[in-house]
Amino acid sequence: MALYVISDLHLGEASLATMFRDDDQGRRFIEVCDRVASEPDSELVLLGDIFDITASSPPHKGLTQFGVSLDVPIEDKPPAPLPAILRSIREANPVSMQALEDLATKAPVTLVPGNHDRQLGEPGGREALDAAGLAKIGIEPMTSRRVLDKWVVLQHGHLWDPSNATPTSGGETMTAVIHHAVVPFLRHSAPRTNVRVDPERLVALRPEERVVAVLERWLKPGIYERFIDALLEILVANGALARPLAWLTTPSLLRWRLKDDDDLWERAGTSAMAVLEGAKTLPGKPPPPDVLVLGHTHVMDWAVQDGRPGVQRLYVNLGTWSARATDAAGPMDATMPVLRIDADRRQLRAEMFDASRRWRTLQRFEVDR
Fold this sequence. Notes:
Layout: E1 2-6, H1 25-38, E2 43-46, H2 53-56, H3 63-70, H4 82-92, H5 94-104, E3 109-111, H6 125-131, E4 138-139, E5 143-147, E6 150-154, H7 171-188, H8 211-218, H9 223-237, H10 243-248, H11 251-262, H12 264-276, E7 291-294, E8 300-306, E9 312-318, E10 337-343, E11 347-354, E12 360-368
């Protein structure tokens, strides 16, 4: 048996800013599906944020006022039905979606919803996947697999992130505001002399709140201050920020918040290692893991926990397949991580590959039973 795992593809609608390009990442995704299909008794686990459904859902209110404040022709609008969003995502990503549909007829495929596609784990999620032609894909809130005498536990990881643990924690609102307010504002704005503005880059930023620092580089003085005021107002309108905090917020306070959010991958790793040591429990209370696999942070991580003599446990974070940026002008991280776990009669193996570079091995772990 071989278990393949990927996360954070962020397949989205064509009308929105793009994090996944079907003619690029999609071709590499076909290679993953072909590998899984070619190995008997293999399974593909999609570890959350495969579909960017939250990006398709506009903020509940405040778009009209945001547009008025910045002279942008946008208005409040209702969200589309979930099946319609999935069908639209399929139309925008025919290569990847067809590869996924074809694989599901040949091998088990399991989706563990993340915070960007949490709706697929809720009532109506099964029907929405069916409407997109993915009826054979299973849905599990988390996944545990027994490999030899070891437990492999797979979760998306957002339940440890206070900004994204629930739909009302603030992260989902920020995603909606970026896609439906900030990006349209930039697309509508006149270009600035001697500054290249790339609206598509905003959705690749991690953490998402880094948009504040990036737009300070892109926008003219005066316009930037108007933008900050409008951004804070729409966040307040949607409950993502208390009004007293909005009154007190300054660019320096925003930068402090960004630094805190940028440490998410480190906090996730610290919590994961505590789980492997037995000092902390996982959400949902799965079996104590020997291998713990998460996504969500968009930062690849690999750490080995040494227990009693001869015992090692592994933590893996899968990073992301979507383009990732941390600043206004630097290069994008285009790594496409794939984790493969398999075993023979005496040994479990885990190997991390980069599908963007001819399946180059990034990390390898071996432990005897």
